[in-house]
Records
---
Amino acid sequence: MNVKEQVALQRTELEVAVNYALEMACKKADTAEVTITKTTGISVATHMCEVESVEFNSDGMLEITVYRGQCKGSASTSDLSKKAITQTVAAALDIANYTSEDPFSGPAPAKLMAYDYPELDLFYPDESEPGHAAKKAIAAERAALGYDKRIKFNHGASYDSHYGVRIYGNSHGMLGSYASSCHNLSCSVIAKDSKGMERDYSYTVARDKLDLWTPEKVGIQAAKRTIARMGSRRVSTCYAPVMFSADIATGLLGHLVMGISGSNLYRKSSFLLNKLGHQILPKWFQIYERPHILKGIASLPFDHEGLITRNLDIIKNGELQTYLVTSYAARKLGMEPTGHAGGIHNWFIGNTGQSYEQMLKCLNTGLLVTELMGQGVNIVTGDYSRGAAGFWVENGELKYPVSEITIAGNLTDMFKQIIAVGTDTECRCQIQTGSILIESIKIGGA
């Protein structure tokens, strides 16, 4: 029996376990919800072309939440026998006897459940042996180490391959499951010369291992990025245009995700409080969410509360179209849940048509950011201050690498001052955007 056949049988068995837990819970609870996650995989790390570690994992957990009136109790178990499930249900019911009433608790609305959900082609398990995984990591290292004589060391490389099953059911009659996989290859190296040392990395990630970059591409890109940083210097403190490279721009928009997340909103701890329907980005700016992309890195048929995921406009013509709210946050805010329990699902950012090279021309003279450091972002106020590294650009050309600088501003202003988004789309994460150019940010340097 191959892995796909084993997982298909496993899904059926786990669905039976969820049904049993719900049956036991609903004898004494008003409502209940049950989740089972089971993950299997391998992680291989190498260093200087030698295997450093091999880790196997096979983890599973059943979590049950029961509601008696507005009182909530939760418990979990890794033992999926009927006896253990019965004991876990009893523990959750007992906990509910001691918790305070919360008028906003309870499962998500029955009308929004994913009773019928799509198959999204997310499952491509890798049955490779550790030796095969190690060969991929070592090949990436060798490509990086052989690229330039200044590359003396490496932080190492790793190959990770995991697959799993998620089952969700509740007392509304919702019972759904899906299998998914994720494969990742990364490499990090250090270069050294008489002026100092620099390091950088590269990685590739995909649902299907056949969609990964070759190990050689990963290694060479890690090496190129590292060598490009050699001879970094500081720049004088100034205000200048700043361009975030595509892989860094995803993090910039991650702050938008935090700002419109329900938990921050009902706590009144977001700089985007009361901004629904308001223009928060330039009029040409668009963000849309597409959760049902086949093989998508962030595709999901339903969220962690069993709600059907659906296409959404997040930003339309610069205006905020929706908050991202779970059922609990929705009740707090007097809204309808949006299907984001567990995170966002494939955000696509509209571009303004410029290639990477054309974006540099638009930047003209300023800073290209290729790395950010630190956690200096205040989601309550939007104040932004982070360590940065990258390249100083003059007349649209890279002049020299820079490091040991900071960039500072306020996210409200930074979002409104975006003047272009490139076509060099970063496709390795849940936010897919090109490089982002901001009109002016304070750069703290020498």
Note: The mean pLDDT is 95.
---
Amino acid sequence: MGLTHDGPAAPGAGPEPVLHGTVDMPRLRRLLGVPELEWLVERVRGRLVAGQPLTGAVSLADPTDGQRSAVERLLARAPGGGRSLTVRLEAVAAVLSRSGVSPDGLAAAVTALTGPVTPLARIRAEEEAAWDRAHTPLDALVRDRPELAAWAARVRADGLARRLGRTPDSVHTLLTGVCAGLRALPADPAVSLAAFAARVLGSAHALDDGTPEATLTLSGIRALTGFADGSGAEWRREVWASAGVLKDELSSTVLTLSLRGTPALDWTAGQGEPAVLTLRQLTRRPFSVASPVVRICENPTVLAAAADALGPDCPPLVCLQGQPSAAALALLRHLHGNGSALHYHGDFDWGGLRIAGALLRRVPWRPWRYSAADYRAALAVSDPQLPPRPLTGVRTDSPWDPDLAGALAEAGIRVEEERELDLLLADLGGAPRGGP
């Protein structure tokens, strides 16, 4: 520890001033600034930093002879011969004050030797203020996008941004970019990840896997779209796609049955076979034919059963296969824009309601046996092959039928689409091709 606060004199400088404020620095260095008393100065400074009073005793275990002699010279008395060396701080302060070395006492003397002392409480308060300023981009984002308020509060509380950015300045820069990205989502029309990153963050690689920006932006997208927990490259690709950001044009697909409008679709519809459309197909060469009514299901089991049971006589059907992909959204927007009425059915559970709500925010649809009355009717039907399962997860709303969420919460039972399969197939079988 250095005790020469003023530092060495510069070449050509005048003689060292005798006083440091009211402290006689040459005498103070000889009396208290010697190496043998560094331990004592460190203890006093530690108390100043901690905001503790400079009273009582401090001790040093196993002192050297030099350290004992230095204390003896400081206090003008023998310190004793025990295994430890004890010094009362009031006695040191009295010596410094009476001698005129430091009339203002021990705190002034240690400050003169070691430099200004910032109390720990003030340091912590300044640090917290700096971290608060670092998170201010979240406040501005929430004003623009209130639906992200819970996510922003969670980012503050769990310290994710702090761990990723490490310093207040870095976190402020990180959150500024992330919030700019989230303001621009969902992207409509869909855009490539590299192009989106270049436009919003100034670098095509800013949202590559593993970057802090990508980690936080993915977290925010899940809050926007309700995308379920998961991991892995495929899951990340689908999270991006749920907000219209594409890692590539071929990985995002949608499953269909009986759609027409291109030679390939006309052939599969005529065969009664499902077709898989990629985002590339939907964005590069959108088809112009749209049916008056298109039904939407959540699970591929429904579409497969419809193909088996109805074949080419099945009316148009689109399957989300869980969260709506970018391809599914592109297709449904296209159909809606061309005049198709969309009718949706999904699982009667919190995840199903969350998927339906995410779709409704992007594309208008009407319920297809997906109301509170339909849920209660499903509960009344017993199927030994598909016994009831308890409802789990976090409650969500059902804006297309506010009573539905209340009915689920009251009953506490989930009803998967598979349990409704006979009813859904009957609807499809009774509907004219291309009609309701």
Note: Confidence is low (pLDDT under 50) at residues 1-20.
---
Amino acid sequence: MSSPTSSAPLRALKIGIIGFGPFAQFLTQTMIKQGHSIRATSRSDYSEHCARLGIPFIRDMDEFLQSDNEVVLLCTSILSLSDVVESMPFQCLKQPTLFADVLSVKEYPRDVLLQALPPESDLICTHPMFGPESGRDGWHGLTLMYEKVRIRNEAVCSGFLHIFASEGCKMLEMTCEEHDKLAAKSQFLTHTIGRVLAEMQIEPTPIDTKGFEKLFEVKESVANDSFDLFNGLYVHNRFARQQLKNFEVAFDGVKHKLLDRMNE
């Protein structure tokens, strides 16, 4: 499949962002730099932060959806997505709109949005495989996964994807199902191990090996994310449950090997 490239002409878009937490703020800085027109709404009051960025903060969802957004970008938490979407007055939309999400699971938001969106609205599901920490020095070489679920306005869709391609992201097109299969084996497993290490309260010692230092980095990295994210990765990725079972079986297998050798 063809992917957008950084040589494509940049199209300035009118982008409305729902959920203006740290990750949305991180994305917004680059979008503003590229010349896009941004407006935000959120359950929490980010009016002062938006004022510092020079963008409008709109508390009323009716007014937000009436604002001629070409793209509506959902940056909510995984656990709150359904409630947010159910409360949206889609009848206020003035034009066919591209809806996009950046959640860390993909089948779930795809299904929720396909059920709720007006049939004339387009949908692209994305997962930027980076965040404020890993992307603080730029996005070059970092991966954006996406699936064009329902696209009729190719110009707006290409313009949205160009936000990432123009920054040098690796553009990876795959299905939401394939993403969730792979994410369960990588992201969810990483979070599981990090949470276990956090429960053990591991700390650096004067004789740390390089391997332990990497384990501590995993624990610290996971600690920067909320438990709600970890919960969402488990509850709304159907492949995560099997990975948790695999982890338990593997741990028991290693433990039994140790006990068997000790008994020998």
Note: The chain has a mean pLDDT of 95.
